[in-house]
Automatic annotation (TrEMBL):
It comes from Cystobacter ferrugineus. One of its GO terms (cellular component) is cytosol. This is HTH cro/C1-type domain-containing protein. PROSITE patterns: HTH_CROC1 (PS50943). It comes from the Bacteria. Residues 38-92 form the HTH cro/C1-type domain. InterPro entries: Cro/C1-type_HTH, Lambda_DNA-bd_dom_sf, TransReg_Diox_bact_type.
Amino acid sequence: MPTKAGKPPIKRGRSEVWTRGPTARAIKRELLLVGKRLRELRLERGLTQEQAAEAIGVHPKHVIKMEQGGANFTMATLVAAALAYKVPLRDLFPEDDNGQ
């Protein structure tokens, strides 16, 4: 529906590309893989979700969501997690089938 100036309204929120189809599936898959890796790192260090949350600077419920692949992480949160777990940022991302 055009506005008074005859221009289409500005869409807000995520693009359909992010919410449907192959891109959405790829995003979900990667969130699950990174979440699994975050859980592995936390458990290797003997931390509870509460301790991890404090170290990362997020609410414990956010740690749960991240580990389950249900949270869309910001770069700041990923950097904070890498620092908390004392690993390079790249170690939060699983290797692909080619070892990369």
